[in-house]
């Protein structure tokens, strides 16, 4: 099942993409009205998930654009649950809407329900959609784009502030547990918010910064381990 995801918040978008791909969906993530129009291909996707508030337009506009070419199921993501917003979305042909913040399992249930009503099958997978990934004493709340580390002494979770690229890097490692990722593989998946590719030296800096924030002893990392001559690995 292919999902067309329009979400301008990079952290939320990356978290949703990660969660959806874990459930077996193939996700195309775009961030703006212009990107959406450029990436859209008729009959290529099974369902679209659209954020309403965009930097260069509105999810309503994109919904109208998609529906002109194809009767694809649409779910709106909205920070506002005012009745007028809901009614407007449904009148434009949306099949459902969900208000932020939301739980990943709720979104998954809505997606499956909309796909069933549209006569489409469902993606493969998963047992539980908790939206929580654990790496040692690290907790990644993918539905909230939040990361915490558990203090061993007090047992309390402390928030870890990550940049969008640091968070993306962490999700990349988490999505490839037990797999050695080469620097070239990581570089191909990393770019800054202006669209420029991250170079090799910058990648080294980002990995160091990420380790400084999530490792108990960054000089002896237990989460993101170096595989000499090959790259990096996060164990299963």
Any descriptors?
single chain; 236 residues; alpha/beta; Rossmann fold; Arc Repressor Mutant, subunit A; 5-stranded parallel beta sheet; 4-stranded antiparallel beta sheet; 8 helices; 13 strands; 22% strand; elongated
Can you walk me through this structure?
The longest helix has 15 residues, at 200-214. Helix 1 (10-22) packs parallel to helix 6 (164-174) and helix 6 packs across helix 8. A hairpin with a 3-residue loop joins strand 12 (225-227) and strand 13. 30% of the residues are buried. The chain folds into 2 domains: 2-117, Response regulator (Rossmann fold), CATH 3.40.50.2300; 132-233, Orthogonal Bundle (Arc Repressor Mutant, subunit A). Mean pLDDT is 83; it is low at 124-129 and 192-196. A 5-stranded parallel β-sheet has the order 2-1-3-6-7, sandwiched between helices. The protein has a 4-stranded antiparallel β-sheet with strand order 8-9-10-11, with no helix packed on it. The protein has a two-stranded antiparallel sheet with strand order 4-5. It has helices spanning 10-22, 33-39, 59-69, 83-91, 104-117, 164-174, 183-189, 200-214; strands at 2-6, 26-30, 47-51, 53-54, 57-58, 74-78, 96-99, 132-135, 138-141, 146-150, 157-160, 225-227, 231-233. The chain is α/β, with parallel strands linked by helices.
Layout: helices, strands, pairs:
Layout: E1 2-6, H1 10-22, E2 26-30, H2 33-39, E3 47-51, E4 53-54, E5 57-58, H3 59-69, E6 74-78, H4 83-91, E7 96-99, H5 104-117, E8 132-135, E9 138-141, E10 146-150, E11 157-160, H6 164-174, H7 183-189, H8 200-214, E12 225-227, E13 231-233
Parallel strand pairs: 1-2, 1-3, 3-6, 6-7
Antiparallel strand pairs: 4-5, 8-9, 9-10, 10-11, 12-13
């Amino acid at each position: 099942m292919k999902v067309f995801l329009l979400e301008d918040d990079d952290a939320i978008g990356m978290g949703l993409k990660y969660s959806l791909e874990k459930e077996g969906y193939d996700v195309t993530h775009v961030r703006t009205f212009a990107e959406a129009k450029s990436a859209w291909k008729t009959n290529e996707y099974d369902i679209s998930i659209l954020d309403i508030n965009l930097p260069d337009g509105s999810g309503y506009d994109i919904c109208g654009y998609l529906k002109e070419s194809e009767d694809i199921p649409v779910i709106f993501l909205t920070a506002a649950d005012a009745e007028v917003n809901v009614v407007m979305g449904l009148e434009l042909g949306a099949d459902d809407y969900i208000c932020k913040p939301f739980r990943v399992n709720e979104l998954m249930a809505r997606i499956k329900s909309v796909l069933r009503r549209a006569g489409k099958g469902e993606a493969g997978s998963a047992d539980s959609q908790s939206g929580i990934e654990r790496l040692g004493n690290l907790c990644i709340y993918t539905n909230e784009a939040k990361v915490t580390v558990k203090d061993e002494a007090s047992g309390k979770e402390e928030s870890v502030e990550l940049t969008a690229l640091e968070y993306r890097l962490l999700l990349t490692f988490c999505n490839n547990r037990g797999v050695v990722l080469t620097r070239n593989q990581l570089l191909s998946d990393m770019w800054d918010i202006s669209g420029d590719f991250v170079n090799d030296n910058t990648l080294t800096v980002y990995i160091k910064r990420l380790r400084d924030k999530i490792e108990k002893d960054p000089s002896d990392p237990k989460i993101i381990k170096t595989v000499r001559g090959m790259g990096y690995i996060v164990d299963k």
